């Protein structure tokens, strides 16, 4: 719960900033022609550095533990949000580099810390609780933005208030994460101590007592070795899709809404409202498929949850395709889509993007926590590596590729990613059934 609420506060600041960055930087450029900072470039830098540093994050965690990594990462988020109080090209891009490093540390540390505090029966539940609480960050910041951005143009005083409040929230979140408890991971518990075999299944080995540099090197080689395993290579296709759709809903789609003049005068306020609906979808999806995972899995199974996300995201892509103009990612446009732009359909697209994203992410977290118990840090680092490489590439082309091509790319990759994920789940289930049969020949599997 401390992990969840701490992340929620930090990412209230960051996700709100990501949602409005393109819009506010455009307003800054109108007032100050010497400022040429570009939001999509900033995000591309963040995710490029994020991807690179994911290879080093397990080494850092092997020396410090996940708690220190999480706190270090949170400090980097505070610096990035605070940099917007003093708009300058070098400061924007320098803070983006720092944030990329911090993101690698905070997310890899989160994956290991969550695994250390879970067992095979509670991993899905804990991942779902985290995801639902974490994504309430989409409500708070975007409600605030919705009421602050009342005019078509965002003036300097409004921006200063918004940036100050978001920076303060990030600082509070960092303080909450500083209270995370230590986790004892070296205990080997027995049935006599009241712990089931399922609980022992996810006990993490104690951190190596090797010299720090040797431990760091071993963590790096473990990450490379894990990356080339068949299951991880297949799952990387799913990770890539989550990175592309992350780019789209966090930085591109809301900007498209804000730039579409046919949506009316309140279109800048709709940027915040879009973030709220994305958050509603994320929280509902996290609650249904995470918190109530044990009940849901008995009814439909992991692969069905991902297929649900697949169908919901296809609906979102089709609705956005017909509703918004092709040039809406770039600047204010008078053009329209295939229909007269609808505010209701735009918000429905936001809701679907959030719900489908929760379907994919809760199942990815759950699967990684069970499949790679003793390699949780490198497994989550590789997840974030693939995701952030895809996000960096996507943000790089988002400044020049029109909306319809971006939607086509998302459609192709969601098909590939969904098939790969379902195949890994099927193979894993078969291996577990075979292992059960070998351990107890009297059991007959279907």
From TrEMBL:
<keyword id="KW-0472">Membrane</keyword>
<dbReference type="InterPro" id="IPR051617">
    <property type="entry name" value="UNC-93-like_regulator"/>
</dbReference>
<feature type="transmembrane region" description="Helical">
    <location>
        <begin position="232"/>
        <end position="250"/>
    </location>
</feature>
<feature type="transmembrane region" description="Helical">
    <location>
        <begin position="161"/>
        <end position="180"/>
    </location>
</feature>
<protein>
    <recommendedName>
        <fullName>UNC93-like protein MFSD11</fullName>
    </recommendedName>
</protein>
<feature type="signal peptide">
    <location>
        <begin position="1"/>
        <end position="18"/>
    </location>
</feature>
<feature type="transmembrane region" description="Helical">
    <location>
        <begin position="270"/>
        <end position="293"/>
    </location>
</feature>
<feature type="transmembrane region" description="Helical">
    <location>
        <begin position="68"/>
        <end position="85"/>
    </location>
</feature>
<dbReference type="InterPro" id="IPR036259">
    <property type="entry name" value="MFS_trans_sf"/>
</dbReference>
<keyword id="KW-0732">Signal</keyword>
<keyword id="KW-0325">Glycoprotein</keyword>
<feature type="transmembrane region" description="Helical">
    <location>
        <begin position="305"/>
        <end position="324"/>
    </location>
</feature>
<feature type="transmembrane region" description="Helical">
    <location>
        <begin position="403"/>
        <end position="425"/>
    </location>
</feature>
<dbReference type="Pfam" id="PF05978">
    <property type="entry name" value="UNC-93"/>
</dbReference>
<feature type="transmembrane region" description="Helical">
    <location>
        <begin position="91"/>
        <end position="108"/>
    </location>
</feature>
<keyword id="KW-0812">Transmembrane</keyword>
<feature type="transmembrane region" description="Helical">
    <location>
        <begin position="344"/>
        <end position="372"/>
    </location>
</feature>
<comment type="similarity">
    <text>Belongs to the unc-93 family.</text>
</comment>
<feature type="transmembrane region" description="Helical">
    <location>
        <begin position="42"/>
        <end position="61"/>
    </location>
</feature>
<dbReference type="GO" id="GO:0016020">
    <property type="term" value="C:membrane"/>
</dbReference>
<dbReference type="InterPro" id="IPR010291">
    <property type="entry name" value="Ion_channel_UNC-93"/>
</dbReference>
<feature type="transmembrane region" description="Helical">
    <location>
        <begin position="129"/>
        <end position="149"/>
    </location>
</feature>
<keyword id="KW-1133">Transmembrane helix</keyword>
């Amino acid at each position: 719960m401390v992990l969840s609420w701490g992340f929620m506060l930090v990412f209230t600041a960051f996700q709100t900033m990501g949602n409005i960055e393109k819009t506010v930087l455009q307003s800054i450029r109108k007032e100050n022609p010497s400022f040429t900072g570009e939001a999509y470039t900033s995000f591309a830098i963040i995710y490029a550095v994020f991807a690179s540093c994911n290879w080093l994050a397990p080494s850092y965690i092997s020396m410090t533990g996940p708690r220190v990594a999480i706190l270090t990462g949170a400090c980097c988020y505070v610096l990035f949000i605070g940099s917007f109080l003093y708009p300058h090209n070098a400061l924007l891009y320098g803070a983006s580099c720092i944030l990329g490093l911090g993101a690698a540390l905070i997310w890899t540390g989160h994956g290991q810390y969550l695994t250390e505090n879970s067992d095979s029966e509670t991993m899905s539940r804990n991942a779902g609780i985290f995801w639902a609480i974490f994504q309430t960050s989409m409500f708070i910041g975007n409600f605030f933005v919705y009421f602050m951005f009342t005019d078509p143009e965002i003036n300097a005083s409004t921006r200063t208030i918004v940036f100050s409040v978001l920076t303060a929230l990030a600082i509070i979140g960092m303080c909450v994460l500083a209270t995370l408890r230590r986790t004892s991971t070296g205990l080997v518990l027995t049935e006599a101590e009241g712990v089931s075999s399922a609980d022992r299944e996810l006990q993490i080995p104690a951190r190596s007592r090797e010299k720090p540099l040797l431990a760091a090197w071993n963590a790096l080689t473990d990450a490379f070795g894990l990356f080339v395993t068949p299951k991880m290579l297949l799952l990387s296709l799913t990770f890539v899709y989550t990175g592309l759709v992350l780019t789209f809903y966090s930085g591109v789609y809301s900007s498209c809404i804000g730039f579409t003049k046919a949506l009316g005068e309140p279109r800048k306020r709709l940027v915040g409202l879009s973030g709220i609906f994305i958050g509603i979808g994320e929280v509902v999806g996290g609650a249904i498929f995470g918190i109530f995972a044990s009940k849901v899995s008995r009814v439909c199974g992991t692969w069905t949850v991902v297929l649900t996300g697949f169908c919901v995201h296809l609906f979102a892509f089709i609705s956005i395709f017909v509703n918004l103009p092709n040039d809406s990612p770039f600047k204010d446009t008078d053009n329209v889509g295939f229909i007269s732009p609808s505010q209701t359909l735009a918000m429905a697209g936001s809701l679907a993007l959030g719900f489908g994203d929760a379907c994919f992410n809760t199942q990815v977290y759950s699967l990684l926590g069970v499949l790679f118990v003793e390699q949780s840090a490198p497994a989550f680092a590789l997840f974030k590596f693939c995701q952030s490489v895809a996000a960096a590439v996507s943000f790089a082309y988002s400044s020049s590729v029109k909306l319809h091509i971006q939607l086509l790319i998302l459609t192709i990759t969601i098909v590939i990613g969904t098939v790969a994920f379902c195949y890994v789940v099927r193979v894993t289930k078969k291996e577990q059934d075979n292992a059960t049969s070998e351990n107890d020949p009297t059991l007959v599997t279907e």
